[in-house]
Write a structure and sequence with these properties.
By secondary structure, the protein is α+β, with helices and mostly antiparallel strands. About 35% of the residues lie in helices and about 20% in strands. It has 20 helices and 20 strands. The strands form five sheets. It has a six-stranded antiparallel β-barrel. The longest helix has 28 residues. About 35% of the residues are buried. The protein binds one DNA strand of 25 nucleotides through helix 4, helix 6 and helix 14.
Length: about 675
DNA sequence: CAGTGAGCGAGCTTCCGCTTGACTT
């Protein structure tokens, strides 16, 4: 008698909470969303099909959605109904964010409870937080539900209206969406930069001095700074700044030889304190980044392993945008740091990390070891497999480090001067860091995408101004500038997260989507765009510019907040997006009347910098068009590898093999395009 | 009667975000 049904989203969470609540409570889980818009018209009953059409939204009647319960969810719902029949109260404990609020609302709509319904929310799974949540229940926030529904409908309209444009103008089966199209655009833009990149060569001198056999580089010649990589314009390879000296190989060799009899003396010693703070505890995006750098896990692997750790009670929830630790977690971390490293490593006050991300909803804690006392990885060696243990180790170390003291030390910068045989003044520079107190570094060193010399710990000898040093070795050293690196899984996720695009639950899925659609392929860890991606991005940039603007989602989020606050009407907002107003044509117009304005041949033509040839994307894939001739392109060719030289080679290859050579004035590949 | 081919019409592709199995490889 008198039992309450508590519904959460995750079955694992239900199990945990059941332990904190007494026998008066029955736990159920929705296993995520329980209803959604139909994915195709045939999922809508025939009688409703005319009204809701293929969109599942009645665009003429207040953008009313038609929701369907998918077959896989029928069982979940019947189980919840069974529990509800025996309960005399329903507590909706879905996550406290936009999606969680909507799930709660859908549950009420579908379960049609006859007993009182209350909404309860908590952001951490501790006994205190849950009992407090029981005392502070509220009603469902209908405005927040409105905001979620608006988001859902916007994504449906965008995805289901723009994708067919791509089928008509590029190739069947393609897709566009608020998230995937921006992700694809980022990857394409980076490749365009690489294609436009012109390398520059520059030289300097690398000296080794005694005492200490330390290395120093030539930094100035007659008072002018020696050019480094960052001084060159990426698209021209030209020097950006005029007061800078660029050395070529000959000059570097001459300079080197002119120092044979020179004396070298310390000109300056600059000592600065070094201090470095630990990074915040993990959220989904940073966990994916570090697991990629340190464990070489894909985003998908990281999430799969984290899911297992979460379900077995080793870590807290892994899909989160929050870096907050609960009070009990802070205490656990501080206690363990004191035990393992000593009191010196515990800061006077717990460290607090602010909101790290745009559009964070912070419905959960940071990702950390579960429980009120953290188990060490060593204690778990027998129960976890290799991948699980490695990921747990990462989470555990990062959590402890986040509650440890700063690393402290000294940075020393040296300048060493000499005069060449030709009377030129040369200055060499070296810097080193000595860490005197390791602080958080004792537990955890953040990974890097590309290791650099600067942040290596390097010890320089104690030297005084005026002191002479001996030249042990002197080598001219050549460098060339490199194009911006391609995105990898974690760097693309970071770029999206920075712009508030996508959610923790979707980061890994976004990567699969753009790969599955044939927009991106992986070469090692690098994400390489296909020529089809270039076509799609061309089309979207030229004809749906505002939709692929990098700030589109941020603006949407801002508007959804206004809807949630009751400052903006849902229908007005959707009306404007879809049907437009003053000057803005709206999406509907762009995908219907304006369709003829999209020149398929133009968007499917990709110019090759420095070459007369163009790549065209046809129904059967990309090919090269050059001098009225066509040549097919190898499927694994990266766009930036299509240099003018490679174009010649491919064109020649096509000529040599008459069977694969074809003329441009016959056999149209695609009626729309040619 | 069997095989071929032209012509026509119908159906399909697609979004984001929440959560796990159930499934195959």
């Amino acid at each position: 008698m008198g039992k309450s049904l508590v519904i959460v989203e995750s079955p694992a969470k239900a199990r945990t909470i059941a332990g904190y609540l007494g026998d008066d409570y029955v736990l159920g889980s929705s296993v995520g969303h329980i209803r959604d818009l139909p994915s195709r018209a045939s999922d809508v009953p025939a009688a409703q099909r005319k009204r809701f059409g293929a969109l599942g939204v009645d665009i003429n009647e207040g953008f009313e959605p038609y929701y369907v319960v998918s077959p896989e969810k029928k069982k979940t719902i019947s189980e919840l109904k069974k529990h509800l029949a025996k309960a005399d109260e329903l507590l909706l404990a879905t996550d406290e964010d936009r999606e969680g609020e909507a799930i709660a609302w859908h549950l009420v709509e579908v379960l049609k409870p006859k007993v009182p319904v209350r909404r309860m929310v908590f952001h951490e799974i501790t006994k205190d937080a849950i009992s407090k949540a029981l005392d502070e229940t509220r009603a469902i926030d209908d405005r927040l539900v409105d905001a979620q529904e608006t988001r859902r409908i916007l994504d449906r309209l965008y995805g289901y209206e723009v994708s067919p444009v791509l089928w008509k103008k590029v190739t069947r089966g393609l897709s566009a969406g608020r998230v995937q199209s921006v992700a694809t655009r980022l990857v394409v833009q980076r490749e365009r930069e690489r294609m436009a990149f012109r390398s520059a060569e520059y030289w300097d001198l690398l000296a080794t001095f005694d005492p200490g056999a330390f290395e120093a580089r030539l930094v100035a010649l007659d008072g002018a700074r020696i050019a480094q990589g960052k001084d060159f314009e990426p698209t021209t390879g030209e020097l950006r700044e005029s007061g800078v000296v660029r050395l070529d190989e000959a000059r570097a060799r001459t300079l080197s030889e002119s120092l044979d009899d020179a004396t070298f003396a310390v000109r300056s010693v600059e000592e600065r304190p070094y201090r470095r703070k630990p990074a915040a505890p993990f959220r989904t995006a940073t966990l994916q980044q570090e697991a990629s750098r340190k464990l070489r896990f894909s985003a998908q692997t990281t999430m799969r392993v984290a899911q297992r750790l979460y379900e077995s009670g080793y870590i807290t929830y892994m899909r989160t945008d929050s870096t907050t630790l609960s009070e009990s977690a802070l205490a656990a971390a501080r206690t363990q740091v004191a035990e393992l490293f000593g009191e010196d490593f515990v800061p006077a006050k717990p460290r607090v990390y602010g909101r790290a991300v745009a559009n964070a909803q912070e419905a959960h804690e940071a990702i950390r070891p579960a429980g009120d006392a953290f188990r060490t990885p060593k204690q778990l060696e027998r129960e976890l497999n290799r991948d699980e243990l490695a990921l747990y180790d990462l989470v555990w170390k990062r959590t402890l480090a986040s509650q440890m003291e700063d690393a402290r030390g000294q940075t020393v910068s040296l300048r060493i001067g000499a005069t060449s045989a030709n009377g030129e003044d040369l200055e060499f520079g070296a810097s080193g860091t000595v860490i005197t107190f390791r602080g958080f570094l004792a537990a955890y060193e953040p990974g890097k995408d590309e290791p650099t010399d600067d942040d290596e710990e390097r010890v320089l000898p104690q030297l005084k101004v005026g002191q002479e040093v001996t030249l042990e070795a002197l080598e001219p050293d050549g460098h060339s500038t490199v194009p911006p690196a391609r995105y990898t899984e974690p760097t693309l996720v970071r770029a999206l997260e920075e712009r508030g695009i996508g959610r923790p639950s979707t980061y890994a899925a976004i990567l699969s989507t753009i790969v599955d659609r044939g927009y991106v392929f992986k070469r090692g860890t690098a994400l390489v765009p296909t020529f089809v991606a270039f076509s799609v991005v061309n089309l979207l940039e030229r004809h749906f510019e505002q939709l692929v603007d990098f700030d589109f989602t941020a603006r949407m989020e801002h508007d959804l907040d206004r809807i949630a606050a009751g400052e903006q009407a849902r229908n007005e907002w959707l009306e404007r997006f879809y049907f437009g107003n003053d000057g803005d044509p709206g999406l509907h117009h762009l995908v219907t009347e304006n369709l003829d304005a999209i020149d398929a041949r133009a968007v499917n033509s990709i110019a090759i910098p420095g070459s007369e040839a163009v790549v065209r994307v046809g129904r059967y894939g990309p090919y090269l068009e050059h001098d009225e001739r066509r040549a097919s392109l190898p499927a694994d060719l990266a766009p930036d590898e299509l240099t003018p030289g490679r174009v010649e080679e491919l064109a020649q290859g096509a000529l040599d093999r008459a069977d694969s050579m074809f003329r441009t004035d016959v056999a149209p590949w695609c009626p729309e395009i040619f």
